[in-house]
Amino acid sequence: MLKTSLTIFVPILTAILSVGLSIILSIIITRMKNNAELIKIRIESERNFAKSLFEKRVEHYPILYQILSDYAKKIKYDRNDIDNLKEFREKIDEWNSKCSLFFSPQTGNFSARFRHFLGHLMHDNVPNSIIENNWEPILYMIGKFERFLKSEIGIIDIKPIGEIDEIKEIDNYMSKCEKNLQLELKKCDIDFEYKGNYLRSNKELFEND
Question: CA nearest 173: which of 139, 148, 197, 137?
Fold first, then answer.
């Protein structure tokens, strides 16, 4: 009797275990496929976003580059003055309000410092002598701003998508100019203080995020 019962039960148990194992394997395989699909979708989304961001930069950066380049030529050809400097600053601010969203953190930081520098330089109580002493620093900063824009779209000899090799040199030069302007403005009882961070490499910026 017992032997007969075992003879019937064993095949049934084997079948149940086989079905159960098949279901478990099916669930595992399905989950693996789903995870693989999610990873694929995420990678594709990141690629599409990077492509869209690059296209927006290529669309809008030339406009800012032209603004910078045109004014650099004014300085080089000695056609610069306080009036067209104000116009230059207004054009940059207008572009910044519309398109600075596409800046990398590094370029955004530089842009803010440059516009801040110009803003203090054009304070109503700033003597013309101080402005005259800062045309060379402005020209230098314009040139570096152009390089920041180029670096984000991989133009010419700049490393693609992003790093400026001499970032410390640029930061030191800007800090020197800012300190000199600060001392000159202090003589005119004008406050000049920067609250932004020093310029850092993109690697440093992203590692600290």
Answer: 137
CA neighbor of 190 nearest in space, from 113, 112, 138, 124: 124
Alpha carbon distance, N-terminus to C-terminus of the chain? 73
The pLDDT tens digits for 35-71 are 767 676 677 766 776 788 889 999 999 999 999 999 9
Q: Distance between CA atoms of 33 and 37, rounded to whole angstroms?
A: 6
pLDDT at residue number 125 = 86
Nearest to 63 by CA among 146, 140, 143, 151: 146
- For residue 168, the tally of other CB atoms under 10 A from its CB is 13
| CB distance 109 to 198 below 8 Å | no
Query: Which of 63, 154, 57, 152 lies closest to 110, judged by CA?
Result: 152
Judged by phi (left if over 0) then psi (alpha if -120 to 50, else beta), residue 206 lies in alpha
Distance of alpha carbon 98 from alpha carbon 86, whole angstroms? 19
Domain-wise residue ranges, the chain: 57-207
By three-state DSSP, how is residue 123 classified? coil
**How many angstroms separate the CA atoms of 158 and 160, rounded?**
6
Q: Give, in degrees to the nearest 5, the angle at Cα 96 between 77 and 168.
A: 70
Unique residue bearing structure tokens 């049934």: 12
Q: Are the CB atoms for 125 and 190 separated by under 8 Å?
A: yes
